[in-house]
Amino acid sequence: MKRNLYSKVIRIIAMTIVLCCAWPSFAQHNPWKQVHKLPATNAFFITENGNMLLADYLFDLSGGIYVSTNNGGTWEKCAVEDRNYNIFIENDGYIFAGGYGGSIARSDDNGLTWELFNYGPAVVDLLGENLDYTVCYAMTMHDGKLFAGDFSGGGIIYSEDNGETWNKTDVAPLSYEVEGKPCVENIYNLVSYNGDLYAFGVFMILKYIPEQNSWELLREDSNFMAVSTFYNGMLCTGRSVMNDNENAAFIETLNEEGVWGQLPRPETVDNNIRAIYADGKDLLVGMGMSGLYYTDDAGETWYTLNDGIPYASGTYFTPMFFQSDEDFIYLAAYEPDFATTENSGLYRLAKADLPTCEPGENNLPDAPEVTAEAISATEIELTWNAVETATSYNIYLENELLASVTETTWVAQGLIHSTDYCFEVAAVNDFGESDRTEACAKTLYDDTVNELELAFNIYPNPVENEIFVEADANIEEVCIYTLTGVLVVQQSTVNGQKSLGINVSELNSGAYLVKVRTNDGVTVRNFIKK
C-alpha cells in the first residue's frame, strides 16, 4: 500500500481558544508555576515511591536523566550516558527509559542509578548504519515482557529479561511502500489494554497476536496517534499532528468491548495533542503551540488552563508529559536548547485550582482598537487600547497565532522590507476570545537588504533534492534537525568554505531547522522539504 507522507507534515494553524462550559465561568485561583528549569525538557515521570525523573533532549547529547527525591525541591543529574530519553515506565521494581540509538536505560533503585542496554542487535539487519540515529518513543509491559517501538523502521521488539536482551516481532505487517520504496512503520505508541497489546504508528493501528509473534492490522488512519491514557475504563488516544478538519476525532476511545468512539471536542479545530493524562475523573490535554484543556465530565465540559503557561513567548514551546501526585498536577514542557526564553522545564498546578463551573453570563471581552505602524524595514509595531475585562491579547497573521501577551503593544519582527502586512488582535479573558480587529502597515524600504541577505543565505526554499548554504564567513559545520530536535543531517567542511551543497532528497517532506556554524558564530534558519 502506498502512502503520501507529505500530507502528514505538522503545521501551525489559527487557534481560537474558547472556553466551552455549561456555565462558562470558572475559578482558577493561581496560575501554573515553573518549579524547575531544564533546557529542552522532554520526558517526566513520578515513580511509585515518589521520586521525580526528568530527561532533556539536547542536540549534542550533553544532558541526561535528573532525579529529585524531595518533590522537585532539588535535582541531581544521574550518572548515565545521555541518549535523549523520551519515555519512562515502571514495572516490578524497575524503571525503564527509552532513548536514542536503540538505548534502554534501567534503574532498580527508583531512578537514582542506571545501567544501559540496547536493542540494536535485534534490529541492525533492518536499520544498518541508521541504527545510531534511531529513537524509541514507545514502551510498555505486556504479559511479563517489555515491548519497545522503534521510530525509524526497526519495528517492534521485546525483552523477556527486563531489557538485557531483545527479540523482534514480525515486521511484515508493519511494512508498506512510499513512492515505490519499502518502509517499515514508525511506531509512536504502545499500549497494553484489556489483555491486548496495541501499536500506533504514523499510519497504522495494530494488535499483537502472541501465538504468531505477529500483528493484526486494525486500522490505517492512525495519523500520528502518539499519546494515550486510560480514562473511565477506556483507552483514550490523541493525534500529535495538526489536522484542521473539525470532523476528525479530537480524542478517540476504545472500550472493553473493542468498540471505537470519541469524546466531544472543545471549541477548536486543532487536533495536535502532545500530552494527555487522566487522574480519576479529571482529563488533561496539552496542545502543541495552542493551549491546555481540562474536563471532569468526559468532554461534555471543557476548560482552558493556560494561566502561567508561556506559549506566547516560547520558541516551539510544547507540553510533553502530565503526571500528578496527591496535591499537584505537573507538566513537563519542551523548548529546543537554542531557545533563550528559559520556558523549558517542569510546571506545577495545585489540584485545588482546577477550574469549576459557576453560574454566570458569557461575558466575552470587547474587541480592542488596534493601530499598526512600520518602525523599520523588518518591524511593525502594533498598539491597542486596554480592554477592561481582558486578561491577555492574541495576535494573528493570516489566521496563525503569533503571540499572546498581557501588554497593549507588540512588535512583529523578521518581516520583509517594503511589504504589506495585515495583523489581527483579539482580547481574551476567562470566557474566551473577542472578535478580532485588523490593522495593516507596510514595512519600510531598505536599500541594503540584498547585502544583508548575502551574509547568510539558504536556497532553494522550499527544496526538493539539494539545498545550498552560502555565507560571507567560512562555514565550519551545517546540521539539519526536525522540529522535534532529531538530528538528521550533519556535514562539516575540512578547511572551511563559504558555499556548501547538502543532499536532502532522502528527508521526509516537512519543516526543518538548519543550524550553520561559521567562524563568526552560529545561525539557525527554517526551510521546507518538498
Report on the structure:
- There is one protein chain.
- The protein is mostly beta strands and 530 residues long.
- Among the domains are: 370-442, Sandwich (Immunoglobulin-like), CATH 2.60.40; 454-529, Immunoglobulin-like.
- It is 3% helix and 48% strand.
- It contains 2 helices and 45 strands.
- The strands form 12 sheets. Strands 35, 36, 38, 39 and 40 form a 5-stranded antiparallel beta sheet that branches. Strands 41, 42, 43, 44 and 45 form a 5-stranded antiparallel beta sheet that branches.
- A hairpin with a 3-residue loop joins strand 26 (282-287) and strand 27 (291-295).
- The longest helix has 8 residues, at 120-127.
- The radius of gyration is 24 Å and the shape is globular.
How would a crystallographer describe the biggest sheet? 5 strands, antiparallel
Low-pLDDT residue intervals, each spanning 5 or more residues: 1-27, 449-454
What do the pLDDT scores average to?
A: 86
Task: Report the helical percentage.
Answer: under 10%
Give the beta-strand count: 45
Distance from first to last alpha carbon = 21 Å
Q: What is the CATH topology descriptor of the domain at 454-529?
A: Immunoglobulin-like
Based on secondary structure, the structural category is: mainly beta
Radius of gyration: 24 Å
Approximate shape: globular
Write the CATH architecture name of the domain at 454-529. Answer: Sandwich
- Specify the number of helices: 2
Strand content of the residues, in percent? Answer: over 45%
CATH class of the domain at 454-529: Mainly Beta
